[in-house]
DNA sequence: GGGACCATGTAAATAGTTACATGATTAA
DNA sequence: TTAATCATGTAACTATTTACATGGTCCC
């Protein structure tokens, strides 16, 4: 009954009321380097959570158009606290690129090079997003005194993405070097 | 009809016939830092793949006990080649630790420290496994000339795990430093 | 004889993606 | 006016985990 989707939603709502759409956007930006959710998960989960008493739908105001916002209940906060005390589950990663690379028996190295290049540009962008989030964070007040923890999370993203890009550079120059053909 | 589980299995079988159990072990060791599968995926998938003509069950010999091994068919190889030519899907990661960290409003920092320590020891182990796989690889022949690619994959694991451990050290000393209480 | 690990599997529940549908609003 | 983005949702499918069950073998 507490799927991880429940938890991310509760966590985000613990700071301020949000709509399903807002929640998706926040996950895509702030958590992009270690988490993801789809609309198909978020909207049905929000409805379930209303029934379970974890969140409450706010009444609509004129200024927020069709937007349905939700706020966390005290039961929701309790649930979040209980989750905090439990050992995190073993992380799960799925990077298909490395499957392609591992199994690329004699396939054209140019194909692989292109895959790596798009991996590279996608993580270059991640790094940019992380840096702007970092800057944004330092310009706003820290009422919950959680900025230090958030900065640590960002720092994790910076370090891993930097490692990714380092690997891309090395691997690309190796593949391209070993393949200066014609 | 080609789930990623199909693909990992085909990839592994493209080098040699294996049983479901073998496949699981190989994924757990070689791919642990970027992929995972459970028995509940592997066994039913193998059966499906027999029906689809992608793999063939080998007859049992006396020396391999109850072990049912499978070999890849030519259709299986064709499928693998087709997959190679398709752009890899966006990777998916789920690291619950960072959710805990991001949402740890005023919860006991010792809890967080423990989570990070177990993350640290798990990735210290990953790094050891990677290094021994690397050593093993250099001591065996390279009939398919794919060792360079495999080494690149290993190098990715080394780099990311090293980044993880670097982050653990920094974050732990920060958390412990800011918390020399009593 | 017992514990660790080899070995295969199934059922039930849960999780998650994808494609589709709909309509409003904003900015060029 | 038209494209982008805001905003919510559902249905069908696919994927995945987990718990359970069973029995063999190897080594101490």
Name the features:
homodimer, 182 residues, mainly alpha, Arc Repressor Mutant, subunit A, 2 domains, 3-stranded antiparallel β-sheet, 4 strands, elongated, DNA-binding
Given the C-alpha coordinates, what overall shape of chain A results?
elongated
Biggest sheet details of chain A: 3 strands, antiparallel
Q: What low-confidence regions of chain A span 5 or more consecutive residues with pLDDT below 50?
A: none
How would you classify the quaternary structure? homodimer
Number of strand segments of chain A? 4
Count every helix of chain A, treating DSSP H or I runs of 4 or more residues as helices.
Answer: 7
Mean pLDDT value of chain A: 92
Rg from alpha-carbon coordinates of chain A: 21 Å
**Series of H and E elements of chain A:** HEHHEEHEHHH
Domains of chain A (count):
2
Biggest protein-protein interface? Answer: A-B, 64 and 64 residues
Q: Which structural class fits the helix and strand makeup of chain A? A: mainly alpha
> Largest sheet of chain A, order of strands side by side?
1-3-2
Beta-sheet strand percentage of chain A? 5-15%
Binned, the helix content of chain A reads 55-70%
